[in-house]
Amino acid sequence: MASGFLWPRSYNLGMLFDQITIVGVGLIGGSVGLAARARGAAGRVVGVDRDEATIAKAVALGAIDTGTTDLAEGVANSSLVVVCTPVDRIAEVILAAAPHVRPGTRFTDGGSTKAGIVSALQGKLPANVEYIAAHPLAGSEKAGAEHGRADMFQNRVTVVIISKFGTDWERTVAVGRFWEALGSRVVLMNAEEHDRTVAVTSHLPHAVASAVAGVTPTEWLRLSAGGFRDVTRVAAGDPQLWAAIFEANRDATLSALASFTDRLAEFRKLLEAGDHAGLVQWLTEGKKVRDALGT
């Protein structure tokens, strides 16, 4: 299957799994639970988290039916396990959970980098247990299940990764249908292409937002308007989470950063030269790409 393939939407998906487990019931995990319950994608939703208060909150919010701090207990009876921990813990969690799941269980995740996780798990899972990597392109700079939404994935792309090491196609389809049932449009890609792409479309913008915010004195914020807020919104994200993302996708992010600094150097050269026509062209090129995105 060619990477970047968008499969047609299915209809009348119905219940896909009798029980699923979500490991990490924060913003994304909470939204997965809310969407799965609201859309009937799972009969029962179990949450696993290290913090009992987080589990209690997720139950109260209706994101999960029940929860536990015991990973082995939480995954034992589910046919799908969705890992929504920070990206640097996903492989560790899957390896710890895998000995305790039933044969035929599928793991998927919400991590924003893929190649490192796929590599870390290659050849290490029990027979008849598989990892089908996924990345829902949805979220918020806010954290916690209290900010989760049942419509978080509605009409948003979720990338499902085509593995190089023999993942059963039917199981890949089943996981893709799950994300589709939550409202997503599913795109199939390989892990390396995914990581190169999101380095430009997600990871670089976060670094730029943090850089703009970081050079702005707080006493100047009273003079900021919509442009500053739009550019820096994602800089409010969790620094620990984002440091892990940058480290996990270091090479692709460095490549994206090199292209960006070249682009800024071109702007500086035009501005220093007083090249009005060149500045207009430079801005027009950026506007063309932004206009193609739509509202």
TrEMBL record:
Any Pfam family hit: PDH_C
InterPro entries recorded: 6-PGluconate_DH-like_C_sf (IPR008927), NAD(P)-bd_dom_sf (IPR036291), PDH_C (IPR046825), PDH_N (IPR046826), Preph/Arog_dehydrog (IPR050812), Prephen_DH (IPR003099)
Residue ranges crossing the lipid bilayer per the database entry: 16-36
PROSITE patterns: PDH_ADH (PS51176)
Domain Prephenate/arogenate dehydrogenase: 18-295
SUPFAM superfamilies: 6-phosphogluconate dehydrogenase C-terminal domain-like, NAD(P)-binding Rossmann-fold domains
Signal sequence annotation: none
GO molecular function: NAD+ binding; prephenate dehydrogenase (NAD+) activity; prephenate dehydrogenase (NADP+) activity
Any single GO BP term: tyrosine biosynthetic process
Gene3D superfamilies for the chain: 6-phosphogluconate dehydrogenase C-terminal like domain (1.10.3660.10), NAD(P)-binding Rossmann-like Domain (3.40.50.720)
UniProt keyword list: Membrane, Oxidoreductase, Transmembrane, Transmembrane helix
PANTHER family given in the database record: PREPHENATE DEHYDROGENASE, PREPHENATE DEHYDROGENASE [NADP(+)]
Protein name per UniProt: Prephenate/arogenate dehydrogenase domain-containing protein
